[in-house]
Amino acid sequence: MQELSRSRPRRGRTVLLALAGLLAAVALTVAARPAGAATPTTCPGFKVLHNDRIGAAVFPAGSYTVTIQDTSLNCKSSAELFARFLEDWDGNLPKPWTVVNEGTGKSSFVRAITGGTIPGFSVELTQKSSGEGGTNPDLGKLCPGTFTVNSTTVVGPLRFTKGSFLIYLPAGSGITCNRASVLFTRFLGAGGTLPRPWKLLNQTATFYKPENPKRSAFRIESPNGAGRR
User: For residue 111, how far is the Cα from the chain centroid?
Assistant: First the structure.
């Protein structure tokens, strides 16, 4: 009787095939990751100085953790973006950014592209403040107390409705809270025309002098984000 022998596969060839399969799986995983995606990086310590909102997204005063999902961002740039977005109470963020509300004190910021969105960063409240006020290196300083507008008044292109307002000194401003309050009182009584040489950024209600915009700036904001139009 003839005995049939079964050939054994070469060990080296088996290893090569296994390695090729592993590399293919890795390549497939990498290809499946969207452009700009990254292993999330956590940046603690961002402070929201007063109860705020961006459109429908609500941010109580307190400490927040920023989680980065985009490799083009870092802790500094994402904090600067969040600070900038908090100035846009109406939710109309600079293109291509948009906010995704995930509940009180929790939201994601994504960039809109054709056919979808790219994750940017998310924020989440970690410790609610017992009160409002203080300083944030990105937001600037929130002046104590509130400023009362006694009747709806137009200043340049903006209308400030009757009610309470907050005064912010943006990061880098050299003006004092008292000086900002005096200037805003003057602007409200100027009959609708903003006195020269002052200018106004409509979107954020920031007043400034063109010759030194950063050092002269102060910003007016409603506690609930609805006092200016």
Answer: 12
Residues 6+ apart with CB under 8 A from 206: 87, 170, 200, 217, 218, 219
**pLDDT score for 225:** 56
113, 70: one domain: yes
pLDDT at res. 56: 83
Closest CA to 156 of 127, 196, 116: 196
**pLDDT at position 91:** 73
Q: Is 85 exposed, middle or buried (0-12, 13-18, 19+ CB in 10 A)?
A: buried
Residues of the chain with pLDDT under 50: 1-37
Domain boundary among 128, 158, 186: 128
Please check whether residue 111 lies inside any domain of the structure: yes
Q: Is the pTM of this model over 0.85?
A: no
Q: What is the pLDDT of residue 217?
A: 96
Residue range(s) defining the domain that contains residue 60 = 37-128
Count the alpha carbons within 13 Å of 172 in the hemisphere toward its beta carbon.
7
User: Do 114 and 147 reside in the same domain of the chain?
Assistant: no
